[in-house]
Amino acid sequence: MYRALLICNSVYPSEPVQLPKLLGPVRDGLTMWSALTDTEKGGLFEPENVEVLFECDKDEILKTANRFFQDCDSDDVLLFYYSGHGKPGRSNLHLCARDTTINLLPSSSVSGNELKGYMETSPAQSVIVILDCCHAGAFKGEPPQISPAPLAGKGRFVMTASGPAQKAADATEAGHPSPFTRALVEALRHAEPRSAQETTLVVDDVYNYAVRALPKELPQPQRRVNGAGDAVIAKRPDRAPQDRESAVGPSGSAAPEAIWQEPVAAANLPATWLEGQGFAGAARRRADPSLGDRLSWRVLLLSNLLSGLFSCLAWLAWKHDVKLGYESYSRETELFFLGCGSLATLSTLCCFLDSLAARDSGTARGVRILRLGTALLFGVLWLYSVVSLGLNSSEQALLQSSMVFFCIAAVMEERHDSRFLAGAAVAFAGVLVPAENGGYDGVDMSVVIQALVSAGMVAMWYFGAPERYFAGAAAVNLAPGAATLLIHGFLPGVSMYGTSLALLSAALGDGTRPAEGSSSLVHRAWRVAQEAIGRQTRTLGLRPRR
Questions:
Q1: Which residues contact 327 (CB under 8 A, 6 or more apart)?
Q2: I need a surface site. Which of 102, 268, 390, 519 has the fewest CB within 10 A?
Q3: What pLDDT score was predicted for residue 148?
Q4: How many C-alpha atoms does 286 have within 13 Å on its Cβ side?
Q5: What is the spatial distance between Cα 431 and Cα 453, in angstroms, rounded to a whole number?
Q6: Within its chain, how far is the Cα of 199 from the centroid?
Q7: What pLDDT is stored for residue 540 in this prediction?
Q8: pLDDT score of 354
Q9: What is the pLDDT of residue 72?
Q10: DSSP readout, 170-182?
Q11: For residue 434, what are the CA distances in angstroms to 276, 370, 443, 445, 530?
C-alpha cells in the first residue's frame, strides 16, 4: 500500500519577523496531493491514503507523524513531505511549525532526530522523505544497516530542495507552488523511466527530472539513498512511443506546453484562497484553533461576573418599577433573578477551577461537564425570560445577552473559537433590540453596517478564520455603535457588549493548542514590538536597561 503524509506550513504567528509568511506551501500541498492521487497520470496513492495538514503546530506534526510511521505494514511504501521554513540545528535539521519560536527552536520545532526515531521504529521498509525548505540537506535520516540481500526498493530515500547551507526558493506569487515542488509534480506527471521497457517510475527518475527542470540559478536538489534498489513512486500507463516523445524533450525535460496545465480545479479556487489566508475551511473544527479556547476562562470569567452584576442591576430596576407601580410583584420573576445570580456564581467558580486544572485531567473534564450543565440552565432561563418576562429594562437586555453568550460559548466549546462566535451572535441580536433596551432606534446606515459586519463575523467563524481577521472584524464592528452615540446621543449597549466580548476573545485567547508555547495575539504583538525596539536600540549603539 502507498501512503503519504504532506505537512504544509506557510504562516508562523509566533515569529512573523524571522519566519515570514511563505507563498508556496498551501499550493504545494494541493498540487502534490493531486499528482500523487492522479491515477490517469500514473499515481499510485489512493486519495484516502494521502493526508494533508496545513498550518500545524509541533505537537500535531509529531503526533500525526508518529501515527503515520507506526500504523503501517512492512510492505507499505511511506512518503513524508514537508513544505515550509527549515532551520539548521547543531545535530540535525529543524522543521518549523506554526508555534515555532527561534529562541526556543529545539523545543518548539520538529527535529530531524525525532522524525528519524519514528522512521527507525516503523514497520515499513520503504520510506521516501521529501523536504522543500531551507537547509533541507542538513536532514540526517540514515536508517539502520540493511541486509545486503537483494531487497529492491527497501530503505530510506531522501530528496531535498537545498543543501545544508542553502536557502530553498519560495513561490514567486500566491496560488503557485514553489519551484522545487513544481518540478516534482511535473516529474510525477510527465517523467519517463530510464528504460523504454520500464512501466514504473522510481525515485531516481523523479530526482533526475527535477534537476533538469529547475533553473540553474536556483539551489540544486539533493538526493540521498540509504538502502538497496530504488523505490517505485509512480507508474506509466501504456502509451505509444510518439506520445512519450511529445511529452519529453530531447534532454529528458518536459515539453514547454505540457508542463503546467493542471492546477487545482477552478471550482476550488475560493477554498484554496481561504486556505492561503490561514482559514481552516467550512464547518471544520480547526486542528489549531487560533484563539479564545485554551485560556478562555478569562473571557468567560468576565462574562460571568457581568452576568452577576446585570442580574443584580436588573433585579433592582424591577424592584424600583414594582415600588412605583409600573410592574406588579411576581415571585417567579424574583426567583428568575435569583437563579441567574446563582448560576453566574457557579459559572465563575468553574472558570477558576478551569484555570487551575490540568487540561486532560479528571477535574478538567468534570469542570467542562458542570459548565455545560450551567450553560443549558442559562438557556432555559433565557427562554423563560423571553417568553414570560420580555424586555423591561436595558439591564435585563444585557443580562439576557450575557446568558446567550455563555450558553453558546459553552455548548459550542468543542468547536473552534466558540467565544468569538458567541460574541458575534450577541452583536447581531443587538440589532433587533429596541432602543430603550439597549438597541437601535429605527433603521439607518449604522444598523445596516452593524448587521452586515456581525453576520460577517459569524461567517468568518464558520470558515475557520485566523485571529487577525477575527480581531479586525470585531474592531470594525465597534464603529457603528460609536457613530450612533455621537450622532443620536445613545449607545446600543447589546451590540457593543457582544462585539467587545468577541474582540477580547480574539485578543486575549490562546487557542486549544496542546503546546504551552502558543501565545495570544496581544502577547505576540507585544513581542514583535519589543524585537523592533531592540533592533532600533542596537542600531543606535545603545544598550537596553536590564
A1: 318, 321, 392
A2: 390
A3: 35
A4: 29
A5: 11
A6: 40
A7: 52
A8: 73
A9: 92
A10: PPSSTTS--HHHH
A11: 41, 34, 11, 16, 46
Question: DSSP secondary structure string, 446-461?
Answer: HHHHHHHHHHHHHHHH
Q: Which residues contact 74 (CB under 8 A, 6 or more apart)?
A: 123, 124, 125
Q: How far apart are CA 58 and CA 56, in angstroms?
A: 7
What is the per-residue pLDDT for 509? 59
Q: How far apart are CA 74 and CA 125, in angstroms?
A: 6
Neighbours of 121 (CB within 10 A): 10
Identify the burial level of 487 via C-beta atoms within 10 angstroms of its C-beta, where 0-12 means exposed, 13-18 middle and 19 or more buried: exposed
| Predicted pLDDT at 255 | 37
Enumerate residue ranges in the chain where pLDDT < 70: 141-154, 227-229, 237-297, 357-361, 391-392, 414-416, 466-467, 508-528, 530-532, 534-546
Helix (H, G, I), strand (E, B) or coil at 348: helix
Q: Where are the beta strands (DSSP E) in 77-197?
A: 77-83, 86-88, 93-95, 110-111, 126-132, 154-160
Report residue 468 CA to chain centroid gap.
Answer: 12
- Residue 188's alpha-carbon distances to 34, 101, 132, 182, 329, in angstroms, are 10, 35, 16, 10, 79
Q: Give every CB contact of residue 354 below 8 A, 6+ residues apart in sequence.
A: 297, 300, 364, 367, 368, 371
Q: What is the pLDDT of residue 252?
A: 40
Q: Give 53's strand partners.
A: 7
Q: What is the pLDDT of residues 461-490, one digit of tens each?
A: 887 776 677 788 889 989 998 888 888 888
Q: Are 458 and 424 contacting, i.e. CB atoms less than 8 angstroms apart?
A: yes
Q: What share of the chain is helix, strand, coil (3-state, %, to 5)?
A: 55, 10, 35
Predicted TM-score of the model (pTM): 0.49
- 271: Cα separation from own chain's centroid: 14
**Which among 499, 399, 480, 402 is positioned nearest to 440, based on CA atoms?**
480
Radius of gyration over every alpha carbon of the chain, rounded to an integer in angstroms: 29
- For residue 291, what are the contacts with CB-CB under 8 A and spacing of at least 6? 417, 420, 467, 470, 505, 506, 507, 508, 509, 510, 511, 520, 521
Pairing of strands 222-228, 110-111: unpaired
- Shortest CA distance to 416 belongs to which of 505, 511, 508? 511
Segment holding 402, helix H or strand E: helix 394-411
Whose CA is closest to 378, among 412, 423, 324, 342?
342
What does the pLDDT read at residue 6?
Answer: 94
* Single-letter amino acid, residue 542: L
Q: Give the rounded distance of the alpha carbon of 474 from its chain centre.
A: 19
Give the residue carrying C-alpha cell 497520470. 41
pLDDT of the residue at 299: 78
Label the pairing between strands 86-88 and 77-83: unpaired
